[in-house]
Amino acid sequence: MHIAIFLFDGITALDAIGPYASLTRLPQVQIQFVGKQAGLVRAGDGFLGLQADAGIGDEPAADMLLIPGGAVDSVMEDAAVQDWIRRADRTSQWTTSVCSGSLILAAAGILAGRTAATHWARKRQLEELGVRYSPERVVIDGKYVTSAGVSAGIDMGLVLCEMIAGRAVAEAVQLSMQYDPQPPFDCGDPERSATPERLQILRSQLRI
Amino acid sequence: MHIAIFLFDGITALDAIGPYASLTRLPQVQIQFVGKQAGLVRAGDGFLGLQADAGIGDEPAADMLLIPGGAVDSVMEDAAVQDWIRRADRTSQWTTSVCSGSLILAAAGILAGRTAATHWARKRQLEELGVRYSPERVVIDGKYVTSAGVSAGIDMGLVLCEMIAGRAVAEAVQLSMQYDPQPPFDCGDPERSATPERLQILRSQLRI
Question: Domains of chain B by range and CATH?
Answer without folding.
Answer: 2-183 (3.40.50.880)
